[in-house]
Amino acid sequence: MGKRINIMIDEDTWRVLGKIPAGARSRAVNEALRTWVLRRRRNDAVNELYALRAQLPAASTAELSRWIREDREQGH
After folding, report:
1. How far apart are CA 73 and CA 67, in angstroms?
2. Considering only CA atoms, which of 10, 57, 56, 54 is closest in space to residue 18?
3. Secondary structure tally for the chain: helices H, strands E
4. What is the C-alpha separation between 39 and 48, in angstroms, rounded?
5. Eight-class DSSP state of 19
6. Fewer CB within 10 Å, N or C, the chain?
7. Is pLDDT above 70 for 19?
């Protein structure tokens, strides 16, 4: 079940939204918000990964290759 909310939007946004038939506006706004939320979550995840990366020691290509080889040999 959906939730009814009241929001304020800019005039230029209303000019675009006002061209959408009344029955389709909620779907259009939901789709736009869903896209925005997904993009925001991805950006947050990337920022968290960069923060974690900054805390970890650097690994050489040789070390990475050895770890991958060992992992493969163990059947992972």
Report:
1. 10
2. 10
3. 3, 0
4. 14
5. T
6. N
7. yes
